[in-house]
Specification:
The complex is a heterohexamer, with 3 copies of chain A and 3 copies of chain B. By secondary structure, chain A is of the alpha+beta class. Helices cover 24% and strands 41% of the residues of chain A. A 5-stranded antiparallel sheet of chain A has the order 3-2-4-1-5. By secondary structure, chain B is mainly alpha-helical. The chains are: A alpha+beta, B mainly alpha. Chains in contact: A-B, A-E, A-F, B-C, B-D, C-D, C-F, D-E, E-F. The structure holds adenosine monophosphate (3 copies) and sodium ion (3 copies). One sodium ion (NA) binds next to α4 of chain D.
C-alpha cells in the first residue's frame, strides 16, 4: 500500500489575493486547493469582512512535503512582508494518495 | 432646505458603528447595493447619451482624461515633501484622490435632483474616464518605469474591475436600448435609486466608523489632508467643467468627482501593485475623512462654486 | 374577506419546511428583509410623529413603558409555579412574551391596511418602548439583583441591538425628514413593504417548521402556553390602548404588541445573560406556536376586541 | 424592434466572464433573484388561473404531461446511437432537454410583453408540469427499472426542489388571493420583474462564460447538439400548443418550454440519481450553448412559427 | 483521566451532497459534524461557488479511530468515483472526550 | 533556527458568542484568531445557519502550548456547560514563529 501521509498547508490572508495566490499555488505544484471566506484579527489589526477589501480568505492545500516546503518559502518571500497573512502546516493522512 | 434623508442614513450607520452596535450589512448585500448603484448610474448616463450626439463629447472626454492624469501629479509632491509621507504611501494617496468615488457622485446626483437641477448627459462617462488614470499614475509614482513586467496583468485588473465593467456596461446598454427600451427596467434601477443609496450609505457609515480607530492612531496629518485636499481638487474640476461649457449641475458633479477620493477601484489596484503602501492610511483618509466631508460640507460648496462661476462667467 | 396573501407565504414556508423541501432563504437575504422591515416601520412612524406634537405622546409612552416592565412579572409566576418550569426557563419565557415581535406587528399593520383602518402615529414608538423592558426584567428574574457586574455591557448589547437601532434610526430619520423628505425613499421602503413582508414570512415559515421537531419533544406544555398566553396579554394591551384613547387601529396594534412574543431581541440577549435557560424552549414557543397563532387567529380577535371596547366605551 | 435590454445584460455578463473580470454576483443574491423570478411567474399564472375555470385546463395539462414523458425518449436514442454518447450521459442530456428552463421562459414572457402579445393563463402551470417528467424518464433510461430502492427519496427530492415549490406555491397563492389580493405584492413581484430578470441574466452570462472552457475541451458534438436540439423540440411544442388551441403567445411559450433545457432542477436530480454521468457535459450544453441560442435566436423563431401555425391553421 | 485523542476527518465535496452525506455520517457513528461553504479546484476542475451546483462544502467530523476508518472506507466506496471529493484525516485532542 | 511548532485550537460554537469569545481569546494571550461561518449538528441538535441565532462560527487560534492550555481550561469552565460548543487541538508548524 502507498504512503498516504501528506502535509496540510493552511493560509489565511487578504481576500484580494485569492485569485493570484491560487494560480501561484498551482504553479508551485499543488494539485488543488480549497477556499473559504473568513474574518479575523492579527498583527495587522481586525479584518472583519464587512466588504471585500477588509475580508480574509482561508486557503487549504493538501500536498507532499516538497511542495509544502516550496509553498512556505515562496509565500514568505513574496507576500509575507506586505500582506496580512499567516501560514501553518499540519500532518494528515489522505484517501487516494495518488491524487495529491 | 432640510438635510437629505440619505445622508441621515450615513449618520445612522456612523453612530451605530461608533457605538459598537451589532448592526451589520452582510457582504453579499453590500455587493448587491453597489451593483445596483453602478448599473443605475451607467444606465442613466447611457440613456442621456443616446439623446445627444457622441462626437461633441469627444474633446471634453479627452480633457477629462487629461485631468485624471494630472491630478495625482499635483497631489503627490505635497504628500511626499510637505506632509512627509513615504514614497509608496504618497503615491497610494495620490492614486486614491486622483481617482473618484461613485458613492459621492451618487449623493451629488441626489443633491441636484433634490433641487431639480439637471446635469449634462456625459457626466457618468466622465466618472468612468476619471476612475482609471490616477491609479496608473499612482503606480508609476511608486514603482517608477523600471522593470515592472506585469503591467498587462495590472491594467487588465484595473480596467476589468467590477465598477468599471458595470458602469461601462450600464452606459452601453442604456445607450443601445434608449429611453423606451430602458423603461421596463426603471422600477428597479431608477425608482429604487434613492432607497438603495440610503441602505448603501448606512453600510458606508458602518465602514467609516470602523476607520475611526485607525484615525485615532494615524491622527492629525490624515485628517488635515482629508479635509483640505477635496476643496482645491474640486475647484479644478469646477473650473474645467465651466470652461468646457457644462451646465451648473454638470460643473457641480465634475467638481464632486475631482474632489472625491476612490475607495473601491484604487484600494484594490494599489494593494496589488504597491503592496508596500499602508492600505489603512489611504482608506482611512478617503473613507473616514474625505467621504463624510464631501457629503456634508463639500457638495453644497461645490454647488455654490458652480453657480458663482456661471454667474461671473455670465 | 379572503385571507391575506402574505400569510399564505408563511403557510408555503411552513409546508415546504415540514415536507423537508430544499427551499432555503440565505442568511444574508434574511438580514436584508428584516433590515428593510425595521427601517420601513421606523420611517412610517417617524413621518407620522412629525405631523403630531411629541409632547402629547409622552404620558402615553410612560404608560407603555410601565406595561413593558409589568407584563413579564405577570407571566413569570404562572410559568414558574403553575407550569412548573425551572427558574431560568420561566424568566426566559417571561422576557420573550413580555417583549414584542416586529413581524407580528408588521402583519398587524398589513391587516389594518387591508381594511383601510388607520392607526395612531405613536405605535412604532411603542413597539420600540416595549421591546427592551421585559428583557431586563427577565434577566433580573433569573439572576436576581445579586453580584452581576456586567449590567453595563448587557444594557449596551440590548439597547444597541440591530432591531432597536434600525427602528429608532428609522423613527428619527422619518421624523427629521418629514413626509416630503421621505418621499424619494418610498418606492423601496413603502411600496415594496408587502412584498418584502411576504418573502420574510416565507422564511419565517421555514424557520417555524424547524421548530416542529423540538415541539414534538417538548410537547404539550409549550403548545398550551404558546396558545393561551397571547390572549390575556393582548387583552391588557387592548384595554391600555383604549384607556389611552388610541383609535381602533392603534388599540388593535398595541394588543398585537403585548400579545406577541419576541424572537430576535430577546433570544439574543437572554442567551448571553441567562445561558442556563434552554433557548429552544422559548424559541419554539414564540416562533413555533405563538407567532402562527397570532397571525392566523390572534390578530382578528384583537381587532374585534378593539372594536368592542370602542363601541362599549362609546 | 431593438434588442431587449435584458438580453444585453446577459451579453454583459458573458463578455465580463470571458474577459476574466472580477465581477461576481454573490450566491445569496443569485438565490434571491431566482426566488423572485419563480414566485413572480407562479403568482402571475395563479392570478390568471383564478380568472378562468380550471376544469377546461385539465385535458391540456394531461397532454403537456405526456409531452414531458415523450420528449426525452425522442432525444435519448439520437444522443446514444447518433452522437455516440455513453448511456449515462445520453440519459442525463435527455433529462436536461426534456425538462425546461425557467430563465428562458422568463425571457420569452418579456419578449411577448415587449410586443404586447398576451398568452394563455395556464402556461406557468405547463412550466411546472414539464419540469419533472423528463427527469424521471432520464433516470430510468440510465438505471433501468432494475433494483433501485431509493425512488421514494428521489421523487421527494425532485418534487420538493426549490423551483417546483416556489412555482407551485406562487400558483396556489396567486390563485387563492386573486387579482385584488395580489395587488399589494405587485410592486415587488411584478413591477421589478424586468429589472430582476436583467440582474439574473447578468449572472447567467457570467456562469455561461464559465462553461466556455469546458466547451473548448468537449468541443463540437456538444455545440452541434446544443444548437440543433432546440428547434425540433420547440417545433413539437409549438404544434402541440396550436393543436390545443392556445393563443399565438401561448403557443410561442410552449415552444420555448419544450425547446429549452433545464439547468437547475435536472442537474441537481441527475447528479444524485445518475452520478456516473458527467455533469459538466449537460450543464455546458444547456447553459453554454442552448440557453444563449434560445434567447438570441430561438425565441424569435418560435414566435414566427407560432404565428405561421395560426395563420396557416386559419 | 480519559484518553482525549481523536481523529479529525475533513471532507471537501460538492455542495449538493451535503444533506445526504451528513445523514450518512451520523449513520456511520459520527456524534456530530461541522459544515462550511467552500470553493476550490482539483482533478474535476474549478468549483467556484457562483451557484449551488458549482460550489463545495467542507465537512469536519471529530470521531474515534474506528468511526474514522468506517467513514473513509464508506466514502471511498460510495462517492469517491463519481463526485468531486477529497478526504483527509488528522490527529486532534478534544475537550470533553466523552462527547465524541 | 527557532522552534516553529505551535498548537492549533479550533472552536465551533454559537454565532452569538463570536464577539465576546474573540475578546476573551485575546485576553488569554492569543495573538490573533480566524473566524468562519459554519453550521452543523451535535449534542444540542442541528444548528443550520438559517438565521443568526441558529448558526455557528468556527474559530481558529494558533498559539503556544501555554496559551492553548489556558484557552481550553477557560472555555471549559465558562462556556462548555451552557452553550453548544466543541474544542479540539492539533499540532502545526508555523511560518514566522515570532508572530505567535
Ligand atoms: N494567532 C492567530 N491564530 C489564528 N489566526 C490568526 C492568528 N494571527 C493572525 N491570524 C489570521 O491571519 C490574518 C492575517 O494575520 P496578520 O498578518 O497577523 O494580520 C488575520 O486577519 C487572522 O484572520
Ligand atoms: N490538493 C488539494 N488541496 C486542497 N483541496 C483540494 C485539493 N484537491 C482538491 N481539493 C478540493 O476538493 C474538491 C474536489 O476535488 P476533486 O475531486 O479533485 O475535484 C476541489 O473542488 C477542492 O475544493
Ligand atoms: N463530532 C463532531 N464533529 C464535528 N463537529 C461537531 C461534532 N460535534 C459537534 N460539532 C459542532 O459543534 C457544534 C456544537 O456542538 P454540541 O455542543 O455538541 O451541540 C455543532 O453544532 C457542530 O457544528
Ligand atoms: Na478625485
Ligand atoms: Na408581548
Ligand atoms: Na425542454
Amino acid at each position: 500500500m502507498p504512503d498516504d501521509s501528506r502535509k496540510l498547508i493552511t493560509i489565511v490572508t487578504e481576500a484580494i489575493l485569492e485569485v493570484e495566490l491560487c494560480e501561484h499555488l498551482e504553479k508551485l505544484g499543488a494539485t488543488g486547493y480549497t477556499v473559504t471566506n473568513a474574518r479575523g484579527s492579527g498583527h495587522r489589526g481586525i479584518r472583519d469582512a464587512g466588504w471585500s477589501s477588509s475580508s480574509n480568505v482561508r486557503i487549504e492545500v493538501v500536498c507532499n512535503e516538497v511542495v509544502a516546503q516550496r509553498i512556505a518559502t515562496s509565500l514568505r518571500d513574496n507576500y509575507y512582508n506586505n500582506y496580512a497573512m499567516i501560514l501553518f502546516e499540519g500532518d494528515v493522512r489522505v484517501l487516494r494518495p495518488e491524487k495529491f | 432646505m432640510s438635510v437629505d434623508p440619505v445622508i441621515l442614513f450615513f449618520v445612522l450607520g456612523l453612530v451605530a458603528g461608533l457605538a459598537k452596535s451589532d448592526l451589520r450589512i452582510p457582504p453579499a448585500i453590500y455587493d448587491l447595493l453597489s451593483t445596483l448603484l453602478l448599473i443605475t448610474i451607467g444606465l442613466k448616463g447611457g440613456v442621456e447619451l443616446a439623446r445627444s450626439p457622441l462626437v461633441g463629447v469627444m474633446p471634453q472626454a479627452a480633457g477629462v482624461l487629461a485631468i485624471g492624469f494630472i491630478l495625482p501629479l499635483l497631489v503627490f509632491p505635497i504628500l511626499r515633501f510637505v506632509a512627509r509621507f513615504g514614497r509608496a504611501d504618497s503615491a497610494s494617496l495620490a492614486a486614491h484622490y486622483g481617482s473618484v468615488s461613485v458613492a459621492t457622485f451618487a449623493v451629488g446626483v441626489a443633491f441636484l435632483a433634490e433641487r431639480n437641477v439637471g446635469y449634462d448627459s456625459q457626466l457618468p462617462l466622465f466618472l468612468v474616464l476619471l476612475e482609471v488614470p490616477a491609479i496608473i499614475v499612482g503606480i508609476l509614482l511608486a514603482r517608477g518605469l523600471s522593470g515592472n513586467q506585469s503591467w498587462g496583468k495590472l491594467l487588465h485588473e484595473i480596467l476589468l474591475g467590477k465598477s468599471i465593467v458595470l458602469l461601462v456596461g450600464g452606459l452601453a446598454i442604456g445607450w443601445a436600448a434608449g429611453p423606451t427600451g430602458v423603461q421596463p427596467l426603471e422600477p428597479l434601477f431608477f425608482d429604487l435609486f434613492k432607497g438603495v443609496l440610503a441602505l448603501f450609505l448606512l453600510e458606508m457609515g458602518l465602514i467609516a466608523a470602523g476607520q475611526a480607530q485607525a484615525l485615532r492612531n494615524k491622527g492629525l496629518p490624515l485628517i488635515v489632508f482629508g479635509v483640505l485636499a477635496p476643496l482645491p481638487l474640486a475647484a479644478i474640476g469646477a473650473c474645467a467643467g465651466w470652461a468646457m461649457g457644462l451646465s451648473v449641475g454638470g460643473t457641480t458633479l465634475l467638481a464632486v468627482l475631482t474632489g472625491s477620493a476612490s475607495y473601491i477601484a484604487a484600494p484594490a489596484a494599489i494593494r496589488m501593485a504597491v503592496p508596500e503602501a499602508n492600505p489603512s492610511l489611504s482608506l482611512t483618509a478617503s473613507l473616514g475623512v474625505t467621504f463624510p466631508f464631501n457629503i456634508f460640507v463639500g457638495i453644497p460648496i461645490y454647488y455654490s462654486i458652480a453657480i458663482a462661476l456661471h454667474q461671473w462667467g455670465g
